[in-house]
């Protein structure tokens, strides 16, 4: 044990300790410079604004900015943006990022997704309107025909053609309800009287 304490006080120990410190400083400086050059420390690229760009234009712009990208599909159509254009990006436009950073882009689909027309036949106009709105369809017009059930839906029309419950229509489609006006036709009266 005494020899160990004597070694700690010796000149050889201090020379080796000094060499170890110098070597540690040199290696640290080398590693820090290497990291600075390989990580482009302090060098940033500004993320372009990809909003409303088509996918081919976005690719060109991302490559010019030396950025990687990943295109994500969107289930929600946004009518304020052109079809198949960029509607969202992460990180946002104007952000400072490293070169070769991956940007995530959401593309506007070609149109609204399709929804099934609910069964609203023989349902009141008021309830039918609520049921249609719940699935994303709108009532454009209500027309009336001579039928006994006042305000009861007898037919559904889309673009002038009769459709059935279960048919698929693009979300936000405008449809027409054909409802009864509460009166009965003379022909129906004659048939009822003859029975």
From TrEMBL:
Q: Where are the transmembrane segments?
A: 12-35
State the CDD domains in the record.
PASTA_pknB
Domain PASTA, by residue range, is 42-109
InterPro entries the UniProt entry points to: PASTA_dom
Keywords carried by this UniProt record: Membrane, Transmembrane, Transmembrane helix
The entry's protein name is PASTA domain-containing protein
Cited SMART domains: PASTA
């Amino acid at each position: 044990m005494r020899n160990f304490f004597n070694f700690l006080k010796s000149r050889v120990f201090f020379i080796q300790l000094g060499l170890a410190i110098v070597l540690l400083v040199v290696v640290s400086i080398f590693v820090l410079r290497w990291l600075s050059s390989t990580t482009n420390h302090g060098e940033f690229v500004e993320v372009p604004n990809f909003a409303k760009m088509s996918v081919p234009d976005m690719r060109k712009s991302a490559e010019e900015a030396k950025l990687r990208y990943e295109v994500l599909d969107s289930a929600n159509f946004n009518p304020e943006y052109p079809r198949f254009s960029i509607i969202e990006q992460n990180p946002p436009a104007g952000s400072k990022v490293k070169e070769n950073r991956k940007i995530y882009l959401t593309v506007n689909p070609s149109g609204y997704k399709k929804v099934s027309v609910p069964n609203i036949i023989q349902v009141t106009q008021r309830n039918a309107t609520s049921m249609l709105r719940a699935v994303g369809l709108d009532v454009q017009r209500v027309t009336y025909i001579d039928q006994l059930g006042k305000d009861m839906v007898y037919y559904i029309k889309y673009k002038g053609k009769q459709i059935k419950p279960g048919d698929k229509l693009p979300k936000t489609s405008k449809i027409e309800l054909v409802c009864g006006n509460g009166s009965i036709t003379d022909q129906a009266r004659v048939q009822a009287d003859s029975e």
